[in-house]
Amino acid sequence: MGVNRTPIIRFSLNRISQSIALMSLVSASAVAVASPEMLSNTDFSNGTTGWWSSGAELTVKDGEACMDIKRAGSNPWDVIMGQRGFGLEKGQDYSIDFVARADKNTAFTALIQHNGAPYTQFFNKQLKIGTEPKAFSFKFTQEMASDPKTEFQFQLGAQKPAVLCFSDISLKGKSFVVVNKIPTIRLNQIGFFPKSEKIAVIQNDSKQPRVWRVKDEQGNYLLAGKTKVFGLNAASGELVHQADFSALTSKHQNLVLEVDGKTSHPFRIADDIYSELKHDALAYFYNNRSGIEIKADYVRRPDLARPAGHVPDVVSCFDKTDAKGNKWPGCDLTMDVTGGWYDAGDHGKYVVNGGISTWTLMNLFERSQFIEGATEPFPDGSQAIPEAGNGVNDLLDEARWNMEFMLAMQIPDGSKVSVPVGNQRENLSDLKLSEIDASGMVFHKVADENWTGMPMPPHKDPMKRYVGQPSTAATLNLAATAAQCARIWKDIDADFSAQCLSAAERAWKAANQHPEVYAYDNFTGSGPYDDVDVSDEFYWAAAELFITTEQAEYFDYIKASPYFLTAPAGNETADGDLWWAGLSPAGNLSLAVVPSPLDEASREKVRANIVAAAEGYYKQLANEGYHIPYTAEQYPWGSNSNLAKRGIFLTYASDFSGDSKYMQTLVHAMDYLLGRNPLDQSYISGYGSNPLKNPHHRFWAHQADAKSPKPAPGALSGGPNSMSFSDPIAAGLKGNCIGQTCWADEIGAWSLNEITINWNAPLVWVTTVLDEHRLK
């Protein structure tokens, strides 16, 4: 899944004078201010709920919210405390009140602005405070056009380190709100296979079935029936019905479903509904390559082309004081890590997330080699990439682009680097560092020193870049994927295969020498991907090395592990599901698929466990009003990817058991991602009547800057997240949404609307096998 990041969305300084000129500040006697409170949790009685922060941690004690600023940055907006979820109406009067203090004389800015580009400001006051609490009170009239998307901020950056505290914050007036009504009929907006189950979900409070009809584009009714009353869908808080029109098996274009006089989005019934999407999903990786020009010849629209970003990407270790006050010593080492994929909407490249993403693409290829009846995905020349026509499978060409980057992140022999000692999560402001011989270890990431704003194409990125310290997790990610690489390329490119195997064995040795070097977020322009349990990574790496080398050392390791031959539990708590920090299932999938000295009984056991996991996913369909293989009390960061990754296990269960119900279950998961959900939202850009439009991305930043491109088609949004309200937009939803409804199609909603390589990789995987299988 994705990772908690804190990108700062900047505003244009030259708009301050424009906005203040249009803002009328008046005396209390001249204005009758409306009374409703527009902010939530104004006295911090509910902790930080509703508030967001960046640049420093926001803490609450005794009714005060404080920020201990150790690195204030060079701009006021480098440290922010704020709240969204309200609007300003033209002609209305507003009042602002709060109390502020600091541990020394300092300054800050209080403002209200549009919460996206062009960041128009409606109120701006630059203020000074000292050690005694000081009350502030302001009034203004909104004289500009009504704006339903505004935010209140304290901007605290560009100053000496200080502690600033706020209390009794209030913004009163009439909030301007635009209500968008969600259609009540929800279904897969691109269509269905002729032989697949076809289910639509209707939000309806009636306890009686409703009549539904399928109508073609000539107005003919092709099929009719009555809905099944499901009742409460706990994940969205709605009462829903289900309409099952699976009996319609003939091919059609532009069909609609009618219920109670309302009509669905148009859809089709065809064999090729995923034929284009699989290519666009894979194209995500070319579009997000680093270190190479993205040429118009290989992208869907000319505006998606761009110059190469970060060429060259030559970096060293972080050598400054981090946000917690720890001084990092740097290192006498320079790494050329040009290439690879940008992880998500920022410019970071991470071995830990690159590992699972690259493995997923290579695993799709391996399925075609060892599963009877599977066809080769993306044969040479089928995908629009520069390497097409080189005699190598295009999927492997794309995987190699990142594999070579991960190889470049391995530390040369004889190199010494400072790392955190053990798991120090309880005392991050007094980190203990130790210099080690890091030979063969792998740097965790390479990224910008600080978060950049929106938009920021990679070729214009001005930030200094560093490698993060090496980590055991990154080292094992390389060991696993390089071992997989070695066997795949053995008969394709013997030299590259040998390079991969050597790197894998060096990484395995280094990880065993340094088994407890954990990731630490030592500079702010990147996510931590911090994982303090790497037992699953050790198992995964050993499994891949065993399959490739057949050496007893690796078999003895995996046989002694509690992960040996296990699969996800397939239960409602998602125990053991595959994700970037839970990688033992990857090792067991490889053991189940790829020939090795593993005895037949063990192979049958791991396959049976995979089928059992898929059976658990299948049984969850009946629990869910939206008929998906995912029952959860809360929806986590990247919830959409969980459905896609479960599709990998559902496919293999169908392969191993011959039971097509598992592929049908995967179809239902895709139905959800493509529109059969409470928000009537296709979470994939470019697909469906209501597709993803504004993912969190610094180049595909059209919402923030009209001159920037809209997203390329085929990108999967992370989706609903009711557990990590860590961006300003998500913070505004907290307390007002549950489960499947905690989402917004906003570029600034990085905890809801992030896109990333480890979510698009399983999208490539499942759309490819669906296009191959087509539920024949």
Give the secondary structure arrangement, pairings included:
Layout: H1 14-21, E1 24-25, E2 52-54, E3 58-61, E4 64-69, E5 80-88, E6 93-102, E7 106-114, E8 121-129, E9 134-141, E10 147-155, E11 162-172, E12 185-186, E13 191-192, E14 199-203, E15 211-215, E16 221-226, E17 228-233, E18 238-244, E19 252-259, E20 262-263, E21 267-269, H2 277-287, E22 314-317, E23 335-336, E24 349-350, H3 351-370, H4 394-408, E25 416-420, E26 433-437, E27 442-443, E28 445-448, E29 465-467, E30 470-471, H5 472-488, H6 494-513, H7 535-549, H8 552-559, H9 584-593, H10 600-619, H11 639-657, H12 661-673, H13 728-733, H14 750-753, H15 757-773
Parallel strand pairs: 13-21, 22-29
Antiparallel strand pairs: 1-9, 2-5, 3-4, 4-11, 5-10, 6-9, 6-11, 7-8, 7-10, 12-14, 14-18, 15-16, 15-19, 17-18, 19-20, 19-21, 22-23, 24-28, 25-26, 27-30, 28-29
Helix pairs in contact: 2-15, 3-4, 3-5, 3-15, 4-5, 5-6, 5-7, 6-7, 7-8, 7-9, 9-10, 10-11, 11-12, 11-15
Enzyme class: hydrolase
EC number: 3.2.1.4
Domain CBM-cenC: 37-157
Describe this structure in words.
This protein is α+β, with helices and mostly antiparallel strands. The N terminus is likely disordered. The strands form 7 sheets. Strands 1-9-6-11-4-3 form a 6-stranded antiparallel beta sheet, with no helix packed on it. Strands 13, 15, 16, 19, 20 and 21 form a 6-stranded mixed beta sheet that branches. A 5-stranded antiparallel beta sheet has the order 2-5-10-7-8. It is globular. α7 runs parallel beside α9 and α11 runs antiparallel to α12. Helix content is 26%, strand content 20%. The protein has a domain of 159 residues: Jelly Rolls (Sandwich), CATH 2.60.120.260.
